[in-house]
Specification:
The chain has 109 residues and is an alpha/beta fold. The protein has helices spanning 50-56, 69-78, 90-96, 104-108; strands at 2-10, 19-27, 37-42, 62-65, 87-89. 27% of the residues lie in helices and 28% in strands. Strands 3-2-1-4-5 form a 5-stranded mixed beta sheet.
């Protein structure tokens, strides 16, 4: 199983730290799932991210991120003991392969 993850944060000139504001999840189409299905979660309206933690810590589900270090930081700050298992970061992998350009749009092309 695959789960694509992206997060956004809100930053204000009155707040000195960024705060998780949006979580985007995509479950791609597979032979057993008719997807793809996209979910957008308003992280500012939710106080308990525990149900998501079960997805992110499940080693049977591969989590795909692009430049996911900030995603991990924001999710960890929003929910104590937040952990990821079985993660693939497309940006880091592109760098590992020695690609000169590794932005998401460039990799998509």
């Amino acid at each position: 199983s695959l789960l694509a993850i992206d997060t956004e944060s809100v930053n204000s000139r009155f707040v000195f730290e960024e705060k998780l504001s949006l979580i985007q999840l995509t479950i791609p189409k597979t032979p057993n799932f008719t997807g793809p299905t996209d979910y957008i979660i308003d992280a500012l309206a939710i106080t308990d991210l525990q149900p998501l933690m079960e997805l992110f810590t499940n080693p049977a589900i591969q989590k795909v991120l692009h430049g996911g270090s900030s995603d991990v930081v924001w999710l960890s700050a929003a929910q104590a003991d937040f952990g990821f298992r079985n993660v693939f970061d497309t940006e880091y992998f592109a760098q590992f392969l020695g690609l000169e350009k590794f932005g998401l749009y460039t990799l998509y092309e």
